[in-house]
Design goal:
The complex is a heterodimer of chains A (590) and B (400). Helix content of chain A is 37%, strand content 21%. Chain A has 21 helices and 21 strands. With 590 residues, chain A is an alpha+beta fold. In chain A, α13 packs across α15 and α15 packs across α18. In chain A, a hairpin with a 5-residue loop joins β8 and β9. The longest helix of chain A is centred in the first third of the chain and has 28 residues. The radius of gyration of chain A is 33 Å and the shape is elongated. Chain A folds into three domains: 41 residues; 191 residues, Penicillin-binding protein 2a (Domain 2) (Alpha-Beta Complex); 350 residues, 3-Layer(aba) Sandwich (Beta-lactamase), CATH 3.40.710. By secondary structure, chain B is mainly alpha-helical. Chain B has a two-stranded antiparallel ribbon. Chain B is globular. Chain B starts with a helix and ends in a 6-residue tail after the last helix. Classes of the chains: A alpha+beta (590), B mainly alpha (400). Chains A and B meet through α1 and α2 of A and α12, α13 and α14 of B.
């Protein structure tokens, strides 16, 4: 009688065992990897210890980029409640946009990160709010961490560049080098070019955590990595000169100045106006701020020294001058049709800025007679000018140690055919190019670099901002090497003639750049003025010059541009003079 | 009676092995931070050996006679602790030396009393009066424990109740009818299912040839209990609500009660087939799996000993159960038969419920793992059950 109840219960028992065994087998066999990972995450918390980025220091030992400690808030992604309401609440407390918070969280989830950095520069009020309400926000943690700081705000942004949060693509590329998802990397300038030296290596520490994720103690693990701080980068730019140039540019909206040491190509001054404050990228840039900067008509992000594309104007007469001599189309005593304030070429009036009458090549250069150079240029021909311009370094990169550099544009007949159609262009365009107008664009650094070559008897040097790199233990890791890039294949006597003419531009009473004349005891300047017509208002004013020091050796190649600054012989020449005087004062202590 | 005849090896050896197994696992769980728990449990183990031994000198007849006394005294104890309001956790009764949980011992009393009652009415076992009185015998402790509130233990009472009726050969339809109000309560959390269920009952009963009046009664009783549930729900403690809800969604509220399940799963899953090795578990220290020394001790076992450890546990529990079930037919006394079969299955069901709870198959309702979980009362109760199993089998040919 009892038997008919025994069998069903045994079936029932084995059914239970079957279900239970299957469930456990599933956990321990099919899903064991998943749970193993979870169990490790459970007891160990990985934490990235950011390496302190190296400083950037000027030649006169002024730190222009350093690291400063900020309060940074991190959130444990596993414990973060990701519903819309909570996101909104957090974004309000932290004063960031909910969309960007969403974006951050989404990114971290995609990359399977454990924690995300929500905001970098918490103000003391927010910090104390979180500290007071610690148990209400167990998923948040505030750390006091080093972040980039640029003490001179806008002054050096075009040299140092800036660091910004790593992008997805950069992260993929740099992950192997120990970068984390909320790392900052150099985006432009020295910060980018020397990223591998500046960055150091992030450390990885493991902590044992309790059930609430609170840290119990630090543990040594095989995956622990000690952080290595970044190296200090010493640049050849002089802080005093830079500050002085900034003051000289007071009253001018935009322009740039670059000075190269002709001996080794090192950059002594590098100034571009307007600029931006690189600190804003670390302190959480608001969308409006970004838009404002991007849409600024003066383009503060444009590095004018290397990326600024300008028509060279009369500065280009250096090229036409040398191409005339080199192609054998003229010598110092060649005369063309006299200048009556202009000349008619192909039934069109081409103006000169003054009435010069009859001049030879030398005087035409000194007095910057357009009429003379129109005729010389036509005689040499477009491709002749093109050839010489390339020879003199235009149309190609100087190789300066930042990534923001443009090639510029030197037209040849191929280019003209393409642009205007075959035979649709003529001597008129050639005449324009010969005085650096029309379809020609150069960068200030190219001109400065050409000046370096002219003072090194034709040898081009690579311009270099960074002088040396030292580790925190003061070991020299990198030292600049003077690099000859190429040599001008133009007779020395032609270059010497050009130098003489350039000397006269500044030092003869007829010269266009007399404002740049300095006290003889300091040495002298030789240069070329430029007044580059452009479609946007007043012409850009150029002054490109070489400073020859007290001992008669060339020292600096200086290019100064004031956008819409009118005649190159005025402000830029004056500013150049001032820069040189400052340089002399610093160097010789006058 | 010599020693060999006094102990059934298929009961005693698994019992001893399981006890030692349980102590070893408990040691591993608490050795870092709370080793005193292990020593306390060790003390309980030696005490319960005495209890087990002592029980072998108590004839089942004596137990039979004292069934009602035991039942009423445990009811009184349950009422007493309900009245002592100043105790923070009402489930525990302070006896000076140790805390006693009357609800644990009431399990045994319930089985004994209910069995005695059913045996006394064995000729009218499907009679409605028999059933109604049985229900009352069960409902009194059930209700007292439920309002403590101790959901897990009250569920165990229900299981015991059904097991006894089942082994008393109560009609399956009748068993079903008894079960329906409880089903109604469970389904009432899911209104749609509940409505379907309510209208399904009459059909099932109709095809089971139940008379019309009974169908009507059952139908309304079910509506009553389903409708009562929202009210009962309100009476639940917050932690019980959370426990119940956490079963439905384990993702939310990771540090609440869903946390226990998740952590238990992590411990079990990370163990793998072979486990991490004894004492090598990492998800321990009572930190990661809360109550790992009590309700969730199975997760520690699985982490360290893997699937093998689980299979050994099941095997050891299965031996006495199957042994009792195969021997129970030879027992002459109906009372002994009834309590032995109910007790053996009950132990096993309790084990399975605990494992299902640890692996997230059922809600976390606080059911311990017999002989493994820390806790004197539950341990002692299990030992008494094993003792009765052994004693019952010794005197299986005895009439009284």
């Amino acid at each position: 009688m009892f038997k008919d109840r025994i069998f069903p219960i045994i079936v029932f028992i084995f059914l239970l065992i079957l279900i239970q065994t299957f469930t456990i087998f599933n956990f321990q066999f099919f899903e064991t990897r998943f749970y193993k990972t979870l169990s490790e995450n459970n007891i160990y918390k990985k934490r990235i210890v950011p390496a302190v980025r190296g400083n950037i220091i000027t030649s006169d030992s002024v730190t222009i980029a350093t690291s400063r400690k900020y309060f940074t808030i991190y959130a444990d992604i596993k414990r973060l409640d990701i519903d819309a309401e909570n996101i909104l609440k957090i974004s309000q407390i932290l004063d960031i946009e909910p969309e960007s918070l969403n974006f951050l969280i989404g990114d971290a989830l995609k990359n399977k990160e454990n924690e995300i950095c929500l905001k970098n520069n918490l103000d003391i009020k927010t910090v104390s709010y979180f500290e007071e309400n610690k148990n209400k926000f167990p998923e948040f943690e505030i750390r006091f961490q080093p972040k980039r700081f640029y003490p001179f705000n806008e002054l050096y942004s075009h040299i140092t560049g800036y660091v910004g949060r790593i992008t997805g693509d950069e992260y993929v590329e740099l992950k192997m080098k120990g970068y984390s998802i909320d790392d900052f990397v150099g985006k432009t300038g020295v910060e980018k070019f020397y990223e591998e030296f500046l960055k150091g290596r992030n450390g990885i520490e493991y902590y044992e955590v309790d059930v609430y994720g609170n840290i119990v103690r630090q543990v040594e693990q095989k995956n622990s990595v000690k952080k290595i701080n970044g190296n200090d980068v010493y640049i050849s730019v002089n802080h005093k000169i830079e500050v002085y140039i900034d003051s000289l540019f007071n009253g001018f909206k935009s322009g740039c100045a670059v000075a190269l040491n002709v001996k080794d190509g090192s950059v002594v001054a590098f100034y571009s106006k307007p600029s931006f404050d690189p600190n804003i990228f670390l302190l959480g840039l608001r969308k409006e701020q970004w838009d404002y900067l991007r849409n600024d008509i003066l383009s503060p992000f444009l590095n004018r020294c290397t990326n600024g594309l300008y028509p060279p104007g009369s500065v280009f007469k250096i090229v036409t001058f040398l191409s005339g001599l080199n192609e054998g189309k003229a010598d110092s005593n060649t005369f063309f049709q006299p200048c009556f304030g202009g000349i008619i070429i192909a039934n069109k009036m081409y103006k000169c800025w003054n009435v010069h009458n009859e001049l030879n090549l030398f005087d035409a250069f000194v007095r910057s007679c357009d009429v003379y150079f129109y005729q010389l240029g036509i005689k040499v021909g477009l491709d002749g000018i093109y050839k010489t311009a390339y020879e003199l370094g235009f149309g190609e990169l100087t190789g300066i140690d930042i990534n923001e550099e443009s090639r510029g544009l030197i037209p040849d007949s191929k280019f003209m055919n393409k642009k205007y159609g075959k035979n649709m262009w003529g001597v008129g365009q050639v005449a324009n190019v010969s005085i650096g107008q029309g379809d020609i664009l150069v960068t200030p650094i190219q001109v400065a670099n050409l000046l370096v070559a002219l003072s090194n008897s034709g040898k081009f040097l690579k311009p270099q901002i960074v002088d040396s790199i030292k580790s925190k233990k003061n070991d020299i890791i990198y030292r600049k090497k003077v690099t000859f890039t190429k040599e001008i294949k133009i007779k020395k006597e032609f270059i010497n003639l050009l130098r003489k003419a350039m000397y006269d531009v500044v030092n003869s009473p007829d010269g266009t750049g007399t404002l740049a004349r300095i006290d003889r005891k300091y040495g002298f300047l030789s240069g070329k003025t430029g007044t580059a017509e452009n479609s946007a208002g007043e012409p850009h004013a150029w002054f490109a010059s070489i400073y020859t020091g007290i001992d008669g050796e060339d020292e600096l190649a200086i290019v100064v541009i004031i956008e819409n600054g009118g005649h190159g012989g005025n402000d830029p020449a004056f500013i150049t003079k001032k820069i040189v005087e400052k340089y002399v004062k610093i160097k010789y202590g006058f | 009676m010599d020693f060999k005849n006094r102990f059934r090896p298929f009961i005693v050896i698994p019992f001893l092995l399981l006890s030692i197994y349980g102590l070893l696992i408990l040691y591993s769980v608490v050795r870092d931070d709370n080793i005193y728990i292990f020593y306390k449990q060790l003390l309980w183990f030696f005490m319960s050996l005495l209890v087990f031994w002592g029980l072998q000198y108590i004839p089942i007849k004596l137990i039979y006679i004292s069934s009602y006394i035991l039942y009423f005294s445990s009811i009184l104890l349950l009422i007493f602790i309900k009245l002592v309001k100043n105790l923070s956790v009402e489930r525990w009764l302070d006896f000076g030396i140790a805390y006693i949980q009357p609800s644990e011992f009431a399990k045994i009393a319930l089985v004994l009393a209910l069995s005695r009652f059913l045996i006394s009415r064995k000729d009218k076992k499907d009679d409605s009066i028999t059933i109604l009185i049985s229900i009352s015998i069960f409902l009194i402790p059930f209700f007292l424990v439920f309002i403590q509130p101790d959901l897990g233990t009250s569920i165990l009472y229900l299981i015991l109740f059904l097991l006894i009726l089942f082994f008393n050969e109560t009609n399956y339809v009748l068993l079903f009818i008894i079960l329906t109000p409880f089903l109604s309560i469970i389904f009432s959390f899911f209104p749609l299912i509940w409505i379907v269920y309510i209208f399904l009952i009459p059909f099932i009963l109709y095809y089971s040839k139940v008379n019309f009046l009974t169908i009507i009664k059952v139908f309304f009783v079910n509506i009553f209990f389903g409708g009562l549930t929202p009210f009962v729900w309100k009476s639940l403690r917050e932690y019980q609500k959370i426990r119940f809800l956490s079963f439905i969604s384990t993702q939310k509220d990771i540090h609440g009660y869903g946390w226990s399940i998740l952590q238990a799963k992590i411990a079990i899953g990370s163990g793998g087939i072979l486990g991490k090795g004894y004492l090598n578990g990492t998800q321990k220290g009572l930190n990661f799996v809360p109550q790992q020394h009590t309700d969730f001790i199975f997760s520690a076992l699985c982490e360290e000993l893997g699937l093998i450890g689980y299979l050994v546990l099941i095997f050891l529990f299965l031996i006495p159960v199957l042994y009792v079930l195969f021997q129970v037919g030879k027992i002459k006394s109906k009372y002994t038969k009834l309590i032995l079969s109910s007790f053996s299955i009950f132990i096993f069901v309790e084990v399975m419920l605990n494992l299902m709870m640890s692996t997230g198959l059922i809600p976390v309702v606080g059911i311990t793992l017999p002989l493994f979980s820390y806790g004197g009362s539950s341990y002692l109760t299990t030992v008494i059950i094993f003792g009765i199993l052994n004693r019952g089998l010794i005197e299986k040919y005895k009439y009284w």
